[in-house]
Amino acid sequence: MKLKTCTAMLLAFAPAMLYAQAAGAPPDLTGVWGIYRGGPGTDPKFQPPAPTALVLKPEYDKPYQERRAKESAAAQRGEQLDNPGARCIPYGVPSMMSIAIYPVEIIQTAKQVTIISEAFSEVRRVYLDRPQWKIEDVAPGYYGRSVGHWEGDTLVVDTVGIKPTVSGYRGMPHSAQMRVTDRIRMLSPEILQDQITIDDPVVLEKPVTYTLGYKRMSSDYEMVEFVCDNNREYVDEKGVVRLKVHDK
Amino acid sequence: MKVLHAIRAKLCVMAMVAALAAFASPVWAHHSFTMFDMTKRFTLTGTITSFEWTNPHAYIEIDVPDEKGAVKHWSIEMGSPSILMQSGWKFNTLHAGDKLTIIINPMKSGQNGGFLSQATLPDGKVLFNGPRQEPPPAPTQK
Q1: What pTM was estimated for this model as a whole?
Q2: Which domains does chain A possess?
Q3: Which one of A144, B32, B75, B95 is at 20 to 30 Å from B57 when CA atoms are compared?
Q4: What DSSP character marks residue B130?
Q5: Which residues of A touch B61 (CB under 8 A)?
Q6: Closest CA of chain A from B1, distance in Å
Q7: Which residues of A touch B32 (CB under 8 A)?
Q8: Which residues have C-beta within 8 Å of that of residue A171, sequence separation ≥ 6?
Q9: What tens digit of pLDDT does each residue of A139-198 get?
Q10: Domains in chain B, please, with CATH?
Q11: How many angstroms separate the CA atoms of A233 and A80, rounded?
Q12: 8 Å CB contact between A187 and A46
């Protein structure tokens, strides 16, 4: 092979080679990642795949569908029903991974990956060097307890201990037995995906899987604080969200 | 004919609401737009009493005189600071005492409140209420 040809090939493959990891070394997910939904005009290979069907057990599906119908009817009337967002209650796991267009920041070290959502300043700590506890040993909360390990270039995160009152994927109900698995992987230096699987043997007929896309924000982006100290919304006696306006 | 016209007008409004909802829904984390009439827009010109750079939303509090000089106070909701920064706003873009012209979507309740559509700053610069604003239809004067 001529030097000129070889140099040209090396230059052509340089970005891919730089991105490829040394054997055994995990990729570095550190950075601020903006929400990426793909869509028309974007590279189809980075398009997050469609979610699987959300199938609830009949005893949970009926009240879930009834509540969705009430919310839909209220929206038709121009009203929004009581919901955690209107009360400025954080979203928790897994919903915090994609709130509107707010970015998430990932900070990766050898023993821990920390994920911070700009919306509501929510934090997940993923321990890489500790075993997971039994669900019943984890205090139920918004973020539960997360442990992770690398499977090749994919960070696999196991989370348990999300309390049932925390709003679920598409508003689905869930039990204390819910288990969330994130499979987080860079598709390129600029694109990241998180494939989230929710398993809940009490509520779901089968696990549901959906995928979120992210695009790397510019390296000088600084995360903005989010403390909900000026919430002017309130819920009236009919359970409808209203807005306070000031007289002066 | 009158009935047909009314149906067409209603369909048009429904399409506008759907289009606005589709455009707007990914942008806002905190609540839906149901409390605002996104099909109506009008212009207010007045003097800012406070500019609140806060979460979950920023607010412009503004005194607006009518043609007879009587002053009414309005509370105008904006996006969150994070979202506003992506469309050129800063915590000190506005100050109490500044004169401001804004276009808003009014509250359905009829209260003196609304959702910011666009603002013309004292220096003439126009800022929108988020990074994905599209050119809106012409507003009517209040």
Answers
A1: 0.83
A2: 25-243 (2.40.128.20)
A3: A144
A4: S
A5: 246
A6: 27
A7: 75, 80
A8: A64, A67, A68, A71
A9: 999 999 999 999 999 999 999 999 999 989 999 999 999 999 999 999 999 999 999 999
A10: 2-141 (2.40.50.140)
A11: 11
A12: yes
